[in-house]
Automatic annotation (TrEMBL):
It comes from the Archaea. This is Uncharacterized protein. Pfam families: Antitox_halo. Keywords: Coiled coil. Residues 14-50 form a coiled coil.
Length: 62
């Protein structure tokens, strides 16, 4: 798996985050090894960090 979060530099909308989260949940369910599960969990954590960073940035600009 590549790091899809560093590749996507544009802002996500709420539905983008929800769609990505749903995709990652499916990947987690399909993961067969502990290494695959760890990788998906890291991607989920990165998504959460990106979502929160964008939220804080929007609040700071208001």
């Amino acid at each position: 798996m590549t790091d899809i979060f560093t590749a996507k530099m544009s802002s996500y909308s709420t539905t983008d985050f929800e769609a990505e989260r749903a995709s990652l949940r499916k990947q987690l369910q399909a993961a067969e090894t502990a290494a695959e599960r760890r990788e998906v969990m890291r991607a989920m954590a990165a998504l959460e960090r990106k979502e929160h960073a964008e939220t804080y940035e929007k609040l700071a600009n208001e």
